[in-house]
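Deliverable D2.4 — example input (structure tokens):
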């Protein structure tokens, strides 16, 4: 899950817990990389905690 909080407007947080966290943190890191460098990623809305407006 990828989250964004109003208290930290320019930050994105990656939450990967448990055994699946080991698998998903690598994939979600690539999603975050593209969001930061390209402004978007096709899977962002699937993994975001809420709609993220960058």
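Example output (designed residues):
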């Amino acid at each position: 899950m990828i989250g964004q909080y109003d208290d930290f407007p320019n930050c994105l947080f990656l939450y990967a817990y448990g055994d699946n966290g080991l698998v998903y943190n690598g994939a979600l890191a690539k999603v975050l990389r593209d969001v930061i460098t390209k402004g978007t990623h096709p899977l962002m809305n699937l993994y975001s905690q809420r709609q993220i407006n960058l």
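The chain has one domain: 2-47.
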